Amino acid sequence: MRRTAIVVVLVALLAVAFAVFAPAALLDARLDSVTQGRLRLADTSGTVWSGRGIATNAQRTWSLPLGWKVDPLRLVRGDVGVTLQPTEAGDLPRGVIAWRDATLILDGVAFTLPATVLGASGGAGNLMAFGGFLAFDAPHLSWSASGGDGAATVQWSGARVSGMAGNIALGTVSVNLAPRNGRIEGHVENRGGDVRIDGEFAWSPAAVEVNATLAPLPSTPPAVVRALGALGTPDANGAVHVQWRSGVR
User: Fold this and answer.
1) Please, what's the largest Cα pairwise distance for the chain?
2) Domains in the chain: how many in total?
3) Most buried pick, 2, 125, 132, 168, via CB within 10 A?
């Protein structure tokens, strides 16, 4: 009887040790499964509780070096809380991402990604290339299917789109995000560039959607006007309406 008790205790201790020291590489398989291969975690080190790695996609066309810490006390309460930490010089990425009572909560979350992530999310048939960098900043944002609060911004600096018809410089594209109608929505506009953008962005667990109008300026080069025409049928003023939708899962 005593021997059995000792074995049980040893097994329990081994289980606790594995949970505490579980390698960070285990998170890659979980992320791969949850996102159906769209997101991966490469070059990991440390543990699932405190580690480092590179967030990327299956093709590794973009990357985000990051560190993280998981709060075990929140898990006891039934919550999930992950603190993002920079792995290189600077202060990005940063912030806390939490999941509580079917609500996603971002506090002080900020990170920067190359705009190539936009092309990667468009799927294997995507023929557009995206240049520049995306800066995401959320002092506080909460979202659930029934509502939310707070706001976030995305700044796409050095924005440009390249395709078979040519290149279009978009300047700096801004999106101000807030939870509405069970989604995170925002108005899209730009400053500078060869064309004027006016549109709407929407995110939900099912898809990312962009509906926008791209209009030429008096200073728009003829080659860019022709490139706009390749995106859709221009109206009387030469403006083109574009729609883009990418399934998240």
Assistant:
1) 89
2) 2
3) 168
Alpha carbons within 13 A on the beta-carbon side of 11: 6
Question: Which DSSP category does 79 fall into?
Answer: -
Domain that holds residue 197: 101-249
> For residue 48, which phi and psi values (nearest 5 degrees)?
-65, -20
Nearest to 85 by CA among 108, 72, 68, 107: 68
Q: Which residues lie below 8 Å from residue 192, measured CB to CB, with a gap of 6+?
A: 169, 171, 172
Global confidence as pTM: 0.84
At CA 246, angle to CA 186 and CA 204, rounded to 5? 50
From 60, 94, 128, give the residue that closes a domain. 94
Q: Residue 120's pLDDT is what?
A: 56
d(Cα 175, Cα 152) in Å, to the nearest integer? 8
Residue 123: band (very low, low, confident or very high) from pLDDT cuts 50, 70, 90: very low
Phi, psi dihedrals of residue 119, rounded to the nearest 5°? -70, -40
**What is the bridge-based pairing of β-strands 183-191 and 195-203?**
antiparallel
| Entry field: residues in the chain | 249
